[in-house]
Design a protein that fits this description.
The chain is an alpha+beta fold. The chain is built from 17 helices and 33 strands. Strands 22, 23, 24, 25, 26, 27, 28, 29, 30, 31, 32 and 33 form a 12-stranded antiparallel sheet that branches. The longest helix has 27 residues, at about 60-85. It is elongated, with a radius of gyration of 29 Å.
Length: about 725
């Protein structure tokens, strides 16, 4: 039994001493006490009417499913209230709610015209709610009633799920064909119902339980399927393919099932501890810290307002002492809404000082997180290049940027799946911070069938003063672009983004930016003001462009109850330009609000084959040069460029110098040679990403293979560069 005497005592204690638990319980109690027996009888009668109409009326079918699910949640909540505050007047309510749910002919939401299978997520979730509700009042119920409800649980939930998902002879679903979260929700839900029914009522109990356990192990280790374009459920760092929203739901029944296994001394529980801790770190990575509270990066199909099914997050926080994550999550999750959330919520997690990594690249699922710290004043930058199979958006390369408590650049997120705007707007490239070609219409079958070529992050170079991230976004946009690379450079209070694009034909490119706050446009500058804090966006290249404010929508807001959700109408920035020989470079500088009064001047220059960004500060100058000969147009010979005082074959170089012209730092990206004023600073045979920091005497290099590299290590300009034999990967050296 999940809610035994020990767990009830623990939950009562949490409610007594913890305001979050106490407030949640008062809301749950208020909801249940507003239900009387007349309400239950009316709903039961309505369910019976819907049963008659559901076979012929699709609307009636879905109304029945929604009502059945609603009553199943009420039943488990009412039974939970009875355990915490025993009151015999609650028992008829609980019993009546369970009986009403059991009168529904089907616990599926697949619709009357869907013939392939008849059990789904709803079948599992209703089964879990009724199973736990029955367990909670079983001691007060006659055996005849227990047998009747158990029989319905098996008939409406367990057997349909087993036959269609696990039966060796009859199953119609496979790990490779179902949405990633479906398998764990359905199989774990089936397990909860099986454990509640017990061996005496299921003759094949042992073999069924064994199959459930095997299936969940296979789900955790699922490697993907080439022919289905389906990726592994988890990356090597615990990153879940469907992002954090469906991650939370995917494990919602699993943690209940496994907890019930642990409580039965006769059974062995599943142990995925190593994987679970990695998944906890994955979830924790996506919080922006803002002045009005934390917010998760709004990528893909995610709900920013957590309403229920939060038990797995509390399970992870309690098991692995993730107090930072729990405190942030509680601000997203307004209340504990279901008994399972109360069960796993632990208000006594000690502050461990643990924080997620400041910088993390999730290579398998395609996410990058770069932050300066964990306070509301710090900067957080998050980018997505991956895909989510059946939850795909046209959003490879989208990013969010928060600084000094404001989320300046955000994604549009999503809305309810049944709303026309979901397909017409939210999944389109126009709704994301990406570049699209002409109309930007990805064929629907690319989203439906998954993406064969995922985006990724081929390079990341990180030091305290300089960071470089390369995002390859072409794969998911393969019908629009041969090349779509986003190069992102982080220097002090500036983020420089260089987009390298190559299309299949001439046309128009559209650069989308979804912003928060007031927008002021002036020539090549957009100033965003949010709560008195300003972010400057310097649009330096292309020169020939048009700024526009386009109409769109922000993430849908759910108002709760019967009120319809709202999709706030917003304007977003769009920068448009025609291609030139099918190529273009967008170069933008995002000047962060630093709080410093020192002047920073951003200008641009260019040559025949170079585009240059110049950042002038009181203490010196920084230059970023993009070598257009190195964008793939020159093949079978090196992409050598001479521009002003620079000789290089790198695609991007960075030079920091003092006011008197002394070179302080130089970097190259995808280069093998960098000379300044005829002096060799960096050289190698294998092109690499490297930073030579002459201020602190350090060298940071990312090589794709073992290679020898040469760097200027002496102040004597006549001295030969120093040779270093470096291994593949990132190396940090001291001169």
């Amino acid at each position: 039994m999940l809610f035994d005497h020990h767990s009830i005592a623990r939950i009562r204690d949490a409610i007594r001493k913890d305001p979050y638990a106490a407030n949640s319980f008062e809301l749950l109690k208020k909801d249940i006490l507003s239900v009387d027996y007349t309400f239950v009888q009316e709903k039961h009668k309505l369910l019976l009417e819907l049963n008659h109409r559901a076979a012929d009326e699709e609307k009636a079918y879905y109304e029945r499913t929604a009502l059945t699910r609603e009553l199943s949640e009420l039943s488990v909540n009412a039974s939970f209230l009875y355990l915490l505050e025993p009151d015999s007047s609650l028992l008829p309510i609980v019993k009546g709610l369970i009986s009403a749910v059991c009168s529904a002919d089907s616990w599926s939401n697949l619709g009357p015209n869907f013939k392939v299978w008849k059990s789904d997520l709803t079948t599992a979730d209703i089964g879990v709610h009724i199973a736990i509700a029955l367990e909670n009042i079983k001691a007060q119920m006659p055996e005849e009633y227990i047998q009747e409800v158990t029989s319905t649980l098996l008939h409406n939930s367990f057997y349909p799920l087993y036959e269609e998902w696990l039966s060796p002879e009859n199953h119609v679903n496979a790990l490779d064909t179902m949405g990633h979260n479906w398998w764990n929700v359905c199989i774990s839900g089936m397990g909860v119902v099986l454990l509640t029914a017990g061996k005496s009522r299921v003759p094949q109990f042992d073999s069924c339980l064994d199959q459930i356990m095997d299936s969940l192990r296979e789900w955790m280790n699922y490697p993907g399927n080439t022919l289905q374009n389906k990726k592994a459920n988890f990356g090597s760092d615990g990153d879940y393919i469907e992002y954090v929203g469906y991650f939370m739901y995917a494990f919602s029944n699993y943690c209940i099932f496994n907890e019930m296994l642990k409580k039965d001394d006769r059974l062995d529980a599943l142990d995925f501890s190593e994987s679970e801790e990695k998944t906890a770190d994955f979830y924790s990575s996506f919080f922006h810290r803002l002045w009005d509270g934390p917010r998760l990066a709004d990528f893909g199909d995610i709900s920013l307002q957590v309403e229920k099914h939060s038990q797995y997050i509390f399970y992870l926080c309690g098991k692995f002492n993730k107090s930072w994550t729990q405190e942030n999550f509680k601000q997203l999750n307004a209340r504990l809404a279901l008994p399972y959330e109360f069960y796993f919520y632990n208000p006594d997690i000690a502050s461990s000082g643990w924080l997620p990594p400041r910088e993390k690249i999730f290579h398998d699922s395609g996410y990058a997180i770069i932050r300066s710290g964990f306070t509301a004043d710090d900067t957080s930058f998050m980018m997505k290049t991956g895909e989510s199979w059946n939850h795909n958006h046209d959003d490879a390369g989208t990013f969010e940027l928060a600084c000094r408590g404001q989320l300046f650049i955000t994604d549009s997120g999503n809305c309810s799946y049944g709303d026309p705007n979901y397909v017409q707007y939210y999944i389109k490239p126009q709704a994301h911070n990406v570049i699209h070609f002409n109309g930007g219409q990805e064929p629907d079958d690319i989203r439906y069938h998954g993406t064969k070529y995922m985006g990724n992050f081929p390079a990341f170079l990180s030091t305290e003063t300089y960071k470089y991230l390369l995002a390859d976004c072409a794969g998911p946009f393969i019908n629009q672009f041969q090349r779509y690379y986003r190069h992102v450079i982080f220097i002090k209070d500036m983020i420089v983004m260089i987009d390298d694009l190559f299309t299949y034909e001439e046309g128009n490119l559209h650069y989308n930016l979804h912003v928060n706050g007031k927008v002021e446009l002036d020539a090549n500058l957009a100033v965003l003001t949010s709560h008195g804090v300003q972010l400057e966006i310097h649009s330096l290249f292309p020169r020939n462009k048009e700024w526009q404010l386009q109409s769109g929508y922000a993430h849908e807001i759910k108002n709760g109850g019967s009120a319809a959700p709202v999709q706030p109408e917003v304007e977003y920035l769009q920068i448009s330009t025609p291609t030139e020989k099918r190529r273009e470079k967008f170069i933008h500088c995002f000047k962060l609000p630093s709080g410093s009064a020192s002047e920073v001047r951003v200008t641009a220059d260019e040559g025949e084959w170079a585009k240059e960004v110049v950042i002038e500060r009181e203490d010196g100058t920084e230059r970023i040069i993009c070598n257009m000969r190195a964008d793939g147009r020159v093949m079978h010979q090196n992409s050598s460029l001479t521009y002003k005082n620079i000789e290089t074959d790198a695609f991007i170089i960075y030079i920091k110098s003092s006011h008197d012209g002394k070179i302080l730092q130089v970097a190259q990206h995808n280069g093998s040679l960098l000379k300044i004023d005829g002096i060799c600073y960096i050289s190698s045979m294998l092109k690499n990403d490297s930073l030579l920091n002459l201020e602190d005497g350090s060298i940071t290099v990312h090589n794709t293979s073992d290679a020898s590299c040469y760097f200027k290590t002496s102040p004597d300009n006549q001295a030969q560069p120093g040779k270093f034999k470096l291994k593949a990967g990132t190396s940090t050296l001291k001169i």
